[in-house]
Amino acid sequence: MGYCRERISDSSKAIWMKKLRAYFSAFLLVFAITLVNGCSDTITGVNKVPPTLDVTSPKSKDTVAYGQIPIAYTVSSENVMKNLNVLYKGQWQKTFQVVDNKLPSIYLTVDSASIGQRVSYFVTAVDVGDNVATSSVFDSIYVVFTKLLPSPVTSIRLQRITDVLINVMWEDTSSITTGYEVWRKIEAKGNWEKIYTFPKRTYFNINDTLAYAEQIRYYKIGSVNANGTAFSAEVSTFGSGGSVNVLAPSNLTCQALGTSTVLLNWKDNSNNESYFQIERSSSDENNFGIIKQLPPNTTTYTDSASGLTADRQYLYRVKVVIPYDSAWSRSVAVRTLPYNLLAPTNLAAVKINQTTARVSWKSNSIGDALSLKIERRVAPYQSFQPVGTTTVYSPYYWDDTTISSPNTYTYRAYVTDGTNSSPYSSTFTLQCDAVAPTGFMGIALPQRKVQLMWNDAAVNEINYIVERRQYTAWTTIATLAPNSTQCIDSTGLTAGQEYYYRVKIVTANDFAWTSEIKVVPILGVVNAPTNLLATASGMNKISLTWNDNSDNEVSYVIERSSPYSAYTRIAALSANSTSYDDTPVYPPGVNNQFTYRVKAIASFDSATSNEASSVVRVALNAPTNLALQKISGTAVKVTWTNNLSLSNVSVQIERQLDNSTFIPVATGISSIPTNPPTIDGMYQDNTLTTAGTYRYRVRITDGYGYSAYTAVSEVTMP
Asked: Who wins on pLDDT, 356 or 32?
């Protein structure tokens, strides 16, 4: 027992002594390199912290080909780097200088004598302060004559998921493959480009999107390892077999429509075919059988009742046949549905209010796991978008609460179990072109009447329908012609009861309602206002006052008319009001007289005051250019320029003798405006019998007010 322990101990010592001698030799080499590097002049201002060196390739137990082998490394230092040194089999091999602070590419040189052997190396890094960093010793690196490339991919399949989405699939065929590259070119004369690069993984396919459905693309797969890339054969989306002299069908799509129905669509690229042949396989690419031959120019076929079973995958391809030649499309895989999903039928939509359309259908598929998807297209956008999901039955309708006018909505629906889908239903278009009236209001009139008023906002109405309800059910009370804007309801109303009204516009395609309003009819027991007065109280303002004779009114309504319009409502005031200031607007140069009346409104009644009228005062422009001319010893001619905007005004001329007061000497001289103004005012004063200085001034009046005076002019009489 003791002998065995002694022998093991001696063996361990021998191994450790051998390693110690190797590391000591390496230390002497590093020391020698440092000593040589240290022969340069001493550099001041450098840090004594050694660099950090990390070598990442090649590593221990790697396989390399003989020759120059690139070494991958990183180094960092607080000082500028000076050089790197490669030591091979424990001996210095090469020094790589750092120039302009740029780290060099370094390599290990292995000669052909080392083929079949295992070698070792390590690297040192030296900075300008002669600080040295040493990598680990990498050993057991096996040297071969040349490296092996991976085996190329031999089986590539293209599957068109949609018109523009292509899935590229292949099989992993080499244990030494470390990654893959997917290369693509567009059309036969295009240039190859690498579109995907990724490391080896457990699945081998990618999706690629076409710019448009008609585009033909070619693909090849590169199998990659450290020694290079091996490429597969090329495949294309155009056709997968047959004669190159025949344009094969392309864009083949297959859609399962049920347990035993598959819909095929393809593009016909030839113009001389004898017929198309539909081929199907239930196992693999080598077992296609003929299921149908179709006439020239056919581009669609439904495979049904011909041996298909539920929940099984099938391959399809379409062959074009010409005399003595043929070519076929790529094959497309499709799985029949586990059960039949039938399209909804009898799809319809009806508008039930301003913002809601009710979409209904007949369900032909029943199942708790099924749902119905509704899509909508809004003109002019012409693109269907999902808008709703509901059950396929109970209830058989869904409310779209996002509609508005004017718009055109087209609906379609399909059934899905979350994975598979039925065909679409037929489409249904709902035309919404009705624009509801605006400004809808109602007023309770005496004797249990209600006046309804609105603005006609549409140009395409067939009629207006006035509806009323007291509780929940709406009743039509009037059907009116286009362009109608009011209606009086006087049938079957009870004073003090609440009634609700709405107005519906009807067009050839649509209808729309106003919002509803509430009105309470009245009997007629409120006292009317009295002593209504209308007074021009300022420029462009008429002040109204009246006597409040009731104690049960809820408001006062002011109404106004002119020679050019009927009475219209201009204001609603709170109870107990007795005055109101109106600032009417009227065209220049027209009659500016307005007539008013005031209504007292009670809960069940209204009563109207007397009428009162007033003319709006406007600012009168003062006359200008006043001039005097002696006619004789007792007569003077007075002239001026009128600056008027209204007719039916008069002129007042005033005169002053010496320092006495101004007195009127002429009033009521009619003046008619001219454009442009001229010297259109003239008066001859023949009463100057007393010698002295006479001063004159002129102003305009409209009977309600005066303009400013002209400047004063004077004349001296003998």
From this structure: 356
